[in-house]
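Subject: two folds for Thursday's group meeting

Dear M.,

Sorry for the delay on this. The cluster queue was jammed most of the week, so I only got both jobs back this morning. I'm pasting them in the order they finished. Each block is the input sequence followed by the predicted structure tokens. Could you check whether the formatting survives your parser before we put anything on slides? The first protein is the one we discussed after the seminar.
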Amino acid sequence: MHIRGLIVLLFLLISFTVLGSGYQLRMQSASNAGLGMAGTALNNGSASIFYNPGNLAFMKNAHEFSVGSGGFFRRINFLGSGDKALSEANINAAFPFYFYGAIRLNKNLVFGLGVYTPFVNSVKYADDWAGRLLVQRQSVNTVFYQPTIAFRFTDQLSLGAGLVYAKANFNMQKGLPYGEASSVEMEGEASNIGYNLGLFFTPTDHIAIGMSYRSQVQLNVTNGRAVFHMPAVWNSILSGENTFSVSLPLPASFDYGMSFRMDESFLFTVEFNWVMWGIYESLDFRFQEQGHLFDSDNPRRYKDVLATRIGGEYILSETILLRGGAFFDPTPTDRFHFAPDDVSLNAVGFTIGASVEPVENLHIDLSYVHAVGLKSEKSYLPTGFSGSFSTHDFMPGIGVSYRF
């Protein structure tokens, strides 16, 4: 049985698959990142606050706290259609983090609090690149605060629910069609409420089933600050600063997973994530002053996608766990309305991870996710922009948890 576990884990480590996902990032636990970012049907301890609140009631200890971070590094390669001079290559970085804490109030009831960053985006291009009218720089950073409660109804069934308070910072610079040096810089904040529901069911000692639903959160930036850089001829009709509004959707998702305890050493999981990106139809900007000149409607036409994940965990010794995984996560973007502020491509990737327990109850988790965005021809018809994109993603992660 141990040999079979090692063979399956080796297969997972060298498996290649596809990554897309828009600006959603499921790297919300270093241990789960090593498992193909799956977690819906796993007893994740306090990390269940994000992956499936229903699992939290099966937490093995009375208390658990975990904290971690990672780097999301993406190299974007662009080649403009028919002109090699319009090439672009740059590296963008984001640094997601998480904190989870959970306390067992009695045999069946667990309360937890999570702080995590499930949506991030960061891109930066040269000011004069071919897509300057769409974006020159953009960053979106979100932080979710989620108090959660979970109740175990039987030895096999538990339910959980969390209330989400989401905050976001939005920053963007884009060129304007009033001269090569004309542009607008925008920054603003937004917040809103959502929720996270989960169910966890163990029909046998070796099989677990999990389902979770994360609601949509609509982020509406109002009275954001806009600074215009325009030719001197505009000074008489436009002040340097303005205000703007924009709405950015964070999609709902429904996750379903199963895990199988193959033997005492090896666990395998498979998971499906239905991400409802179809709500992202357009990114529209409205300005308080001179709106008839600067207001813009920017169609996106995203579509819902179904992601598939697999992961395996092997107990090498009493203090060391090895993990591997892979996932298929198709891009939600529309081929003919592909905006380079979110370079989401189908990509080849894999995940690996490990946990060590240097002292009793203290666990250190390490993970690494690597993906190569497959080269694809894209265009944005409203502006005539087109070209080919490819990406390379590097995502190391580290986490520490303490259980007692």
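Second protein, same layout:
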Amino acid sequence: MVVRRYMAVLFQILAPSRPRVGPHKHQTRWLAAMAAAALLALASCAISESGSESGDDLTGDQGPAPSAATSATVLVHYPTGWGNRITLRCGGGGRNWNTAIETTWTTGDIWRVTLATTVQIECKPMFNNTTWAGGANWKVTPGATVDMWPFFFHTAGRLTRTPGWYSTVLADSRAIWTYYPPSYDENPAQRYPVVYMHDGQNLFLDSYAFGGVSWAVGTAMDQGILNGTIREAIVIGIDNDVDRLSEYTPVPDPSYGGGNAAKYLQFITTELKPQMDLQLRTRPTADQTAIVGSSLGGLVSVWAGLTRPDVFRMVGALSPSTWWNGTWIIGQTTAAAGPFPSRVYIDSGNAGTSGDDNVNTTALAAAWKLKAGVTVKHVVQSGATHSETYWRQRIPGALQFLLGPR
């Protein structure tokens, strides 16, 4: 038993670490050699045993179990230009982050390599073996083909504002904001999911936002992309105007009027989205398209999920106005027979004079949870009121849920 304990300890000494980003230093050669010699000596005098002591777990945490597959294929999509190359660095499974793995260029600017491995490892591309790809490591599993779309020379996305975008459906003009993820200008073959968001002037810059506090959506995307918790995506922000209440409400409320959301969604689905899909490198299918908003913008987003799941399969509603017209949207959700979006994010605070309508919002989330095939996340932020300050705090989690990790 003592021999087995020392063998387990020595195994842990020799086992390579798996860094999350970038290479770590490994043990020196003389330590490895001494440990290996000691291990062989102990093995030679080991006695065959049967059974083990109660609670004597000698396996430790050895990482993922070995797979029946013995290799994985990595495809790095990147246009290096003539005379440049892509290498790969990996850790885990006995690999050393300091060792470069050469890849082979193939048609379409795809750099290919097959890695021998029976356990999950982590890898990251390098440009000319000198510049690391940005963001988190890629996980490579035996038997899998892993497509990597790296960026090397950008650390943040890019934001543009297009004023005067005219809609014939709404017969007016408004500004449209576009967030381009870090790899957009660097990796021209890559295509991206798209998140359509309302109240565009509140999304990115404090200088444009209501009350001087934006949601900082660009910052949330950049941070999530760099740490691997959010997939790269394009974000389209649609400015509101004097018709906001009417455009964001599906039906009139006896006290406030409104009820012109059908035209607003028609504008998005028949004018704005087709142009974005034509001009930008989008993934235009419904499963790659989200619609997200807060307050009345949350209300119209939920309604879009109910009525146009053929366009929007991901829905985000932050503090939605579930109270509108006697909680009309809860009844519509409860009665709906489908089809439905695949992912629905709903949240609220629970403070302020209205309690951020958290009771009704909880009921709305419960109605969605009863729908087959819909994955729902419901968040109540304790102490949060109905304001941009708290939507700014919650939007990273909403985007992580809807878009998923890289």
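Two things I noticed about the second structure. The chain has nine helices and 17 strands. The first strand starts at residue 71 and ends at 77.

Cheers,
T.
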